[in-house]
Design brief:
334 residues; mainly alpha; 14 helices; 79% helix; elongated
Length: 334
């Protein structure tokens, strides 16, 4: 008879891959929304390109995965039910917001659910590794600020060098540049966001096998990267429509500015192992690029709705992770 902990491990692994796939079509769509919105790429081309580069980006490092896997909560104080509960809580919030076409942070959704599930398991804040969590909380503020300033700054440079009228005459050039920036953005998303499902899977493996040194096996990198890439290929059309078409009417030079600035922020965070929100970063970059052209072109009520969803993400997922952990604790008796 198969032991109950092995059954729980198998279920958790399955949910990890489901989460990677869901993250692909709810979150990775952010990476290609601007190129579709500005018509630099067709939807099909953008999705296929992002699916491939998402996987490639996931292969370039594991610092973010290790932060998720061992840097948010103390593994000695939690169990496999905690990991499974975190996955359920994070996915519940992602799918709920996706149904309304609202782009929210998979990063903060997952971390909130991990913390909520861990608190339910231990009943103590001692389970939280505050140094790791603090980096994430600081990034909540810093990454969208850098994205906004970067998008506005690049647009300002473009208009200063070419002037607005001349920039429009260079549309074919900027269309090609945006294709490159879209590829860079998809790659950067894979390097940061695709590592989060890896981290949660590594957390489960470390708990089951009692690893003293937590690392990310190559098979985890490849398989989770592929699952996330397939999620992108499945498509995130609701999110693409919101970011690419509804926030502001994007020109190719605006799309290039937004994608480039957001990708640079993601690359910097990945180097230091900081899980940041692609959603926060690219959305604020789009707003910055749009406002640099004309403040009135940005649909500020929609931006406010998106920001409010960001504010609610952490408390909502902490609660969902806590509830899921309590239910699973009864089902699996610990």
């Amino acid at each position: 008879m198969i032991e109950s902990t092995l059954v729980l491990l198998i279920i958790t692994i399955i949910f990890s891959y489901i989460y990677a796939f869901v993250s692909g079509f709810t979150d990775a769509a952010n990476a290609i929304a601007t190129s579709v919105g500005s018509r630099a790429l067709s939807p099909l081309t953008a999705v296929l390109m992002a699916g491939i580069l998402e996987t490639v980006g996931a292969l370039t490092g594991t610092a973010v995965a290790l932060t998720i896997g061992k840097g948010i909560v103390d593994l000695e104080l939690i169990s496999l039910t905690t990991v499974l509960a975190a996955l359920i809580g994070a996915m519940a919030w992602s799918l709920l917001t996706y149904a309304f076409g609202i782009p929210v942070s998979e990063t903060h959704g997952l971390i909130g659910a991990v913390v909520g599930a861990a608190l339910a398991k231990t009943g103590s804040l001692q389970v939280v590794i505050w140094s790791g969590l603090t980096k994430v909380l600081v990034a909540i503020i810093v990454s969208p600020l850098l994205g906004f300033l970067g998008g506005a700054f690049l647009m300002g440079i473009i208009y200063f060098v070419f002037q607005k009228g001349k920039a429009k005459n260079l549309t074919p050039v900027f269309r090609n540049l945006q294709r490159l920036s879209s590829a860079f953005m998809a790659f950067s998303h894979g390097r940061n966001d695709a590592q989060k499902p890896m981290g949660i899977l590594v957390m489960a493996l470390a708990l089951y096998y009692s690893w003293t040194e937590v690392s990310v096996p190559i098979w985890v990198i490849l398989s989770v990267g592929l699952a996330a890439g397939l999620g992108v290929a499945f498509g995130g059309w609701r999110i693409i429509k919101t970011l690419g078409l509804r926030v502001t009417n994007l020109s190719v030079e605006q799309g290039f500015s937004a994608e480039t600035s957001a990708a640079l922020v993601l690359q910097g965070a990945s180097v230091f192992g900081i899980p940041v929100s692609t959603t926060h970063t690219i959305t604020s970059s789009i707003v910055g690029a749009g406002a640099a052209k004309r403040v009135s072109t940005v649909r500020w009520q929609l931006v406010l709705d998106i920001v409010l969803s960001w504010i609610f993400t952490l408390p909502a997922t902490v609660m969902l992770g806590w509830i899921a952990a309590k239910i699973l604790g009864v089902v699996f008796a610990g």
